[in-house]
Write a structure and sequence with these properties.
5-stranded mixed beta barrel, 11 helices, alpha/beta, globular, two-stranded antiparallel sheet, single chain, 2 domains
Length: about 375
């Protein structure tokens, strides 16, 4: 049976230590670029890779993308603390995101601010598993002490600031445009965006409530609210890792090995029986022979055509199509002379097409091929 890897991410040292208390002893690991992880055991025989991505959505998006590309996990969990936006969600409670608002995007005009929200949902299967875990109460055996926090499922808002006010412009923005928000924090939008760019990788955001985002943060922090909240989130995240390991590994675009069929395979169909492969249904007998992987040059042309089709169908707007093609052109012109710069251009391209499964899959395969030096 495959020993699946679940990545758990944190932003603060105290959040990291709360998870580390569950997975030790650990083995250190270093990703390309110097990012560090510690790998330990999770429930149900899975492995857990723990990494601190730092504060802010930009940092969390960049490092989550790197870790997903290198570790190829079965799922990702982001565990840590946040501020409550609801009177019934109290210190120590746990909020599991149904979706995350990247809430500070918008247009500032002479007539006022016009919100342009981006929303990143939790995958249905992963959210269902989290609900089941909460109903079973099994996760509570991982809690320390006599704490009995409640678990809430709802929207989380992720901005670029630490919100500790009910009267600031950001607090008013949340109230007016995102008033169903359960909790507020600073990293979850970046994590979920990276997961969606990787092909809708199952990802769950778990936040322990450490303050009320109301100007009293220093007061609640002085009562050890952050370590307690981080510990409660870590207990739920640790138990959730074992449950997410039961999911089938998600398809994250075609790798070079996926596109190359090695050896032969004979399928027989008798009478009205049919046999199928992912690309269609065939009757009769077929033999598959080894073929060469798609050359990188052809992959560029294939992705270019896919972007054109997406633009023609209205799935990709004209501005994003133009920006995506510019990055693709840059990558193609640089691939022979500066592979690192070409890869960077392709990764920037991801931001324009992550929600389009077809082009995103082709892009993921192209990044893999170019990274392999083809």
């Amino acid at each position: 049976m495959e020993e699946k890897l679940i990545v758990i991410l944190t932003a603060l040292d105290l959040e990291y230590e709360a998870v580390l208390a569950h997975i030790g002893p650990v083995t250190p690991h270093r990703y390309r670029g110097g990012t560090r992880a510690e790998i330990g055991r999770g429930p149900g025989g899975c492995r857990i890779a723990l990494t601190n991505v730092g504060k802010g959505n930009t940092s969390s998006a960049a490092l989550t993308t790197r870790i997903i590309d290198e570790a190829d996990p079965a799922a990702v969990i982001f565990s840590g603390v946040g501020g409550s936006r609801r009177a019934n969600i109290v210190l120590g409670d746990v909020v599991v995101a149904s979706h995350v608002y990247h809430y500070q995007g918008g247009t500032s005009t002479d007539t006022g601010f016009k919100a342009r929200p981006r929303v990143f949902p939790t995958s249905h299967a992963a959210e269902q598993i989290a609900h089941h875990l909460n109903r079973s109460n099994d996760w509570r055996k991982h809690l320390r002490g006599a704490a009995h926090p409640k678990v809430h499922f709802g929207p989380i808002a992720a901005g670029e600031i630490l919100l500790d006010s009910v009267t600031s412009p950001e607090a008013i923005l949340l109230f007016e445009h995102y008033n169903d928000t359960y909790a507020v924090e600073m990293e979850a939008a970046g994590v979920l965006q990276a997961a969606h760019m990787a092909g809708s990788l199952p990802t769950v955001v778990v936040r322990g409530i450490s303050d009320f985002a109301d100007g009293r943060k220093s007061e609640t922090d002085a009562r050890d609210s952050q370590p307690n909240a981080a510990a409660h989130a870590a207990a739920f995240a640790f138990a959730l890792a074992g449950e997410l390991a039961t999911l089938d590994r998600p398809a994250r675009g075609l790798t070079r090995e996926d596109r190359t069929m090695v050896g032969s395979n004979q399928n027989n169909a008798n009478g009205n029986a049919r046999v199928g492969v992912q690309t269609g249904v065939f009757a009769g007998s077929y033999t598959f022979h080894e073929v060469d992987a798609i050359p990188v040059g052809d992959a560029f042309a294939g992705l270019r055509a896919a972007l054109r089709r997406a633009a023609d169908s209205g799935e990709l707007d004209t501005t994003d199509h133009g920006a995506a093609i510019a990055e693709l052109d840059a990558a193609e012109s640089l691939r022979a002379t500066d592979r690192a710069a070409a890869l960077l251009a392709l990764k920037r391209l991801r931001g324009f097409i992550f929600a389009l499964p077809g082009p995103a899959g082709l892009l993921s395969a192209l990044i893999t091929d170019l990274g392999d030096g083809r």
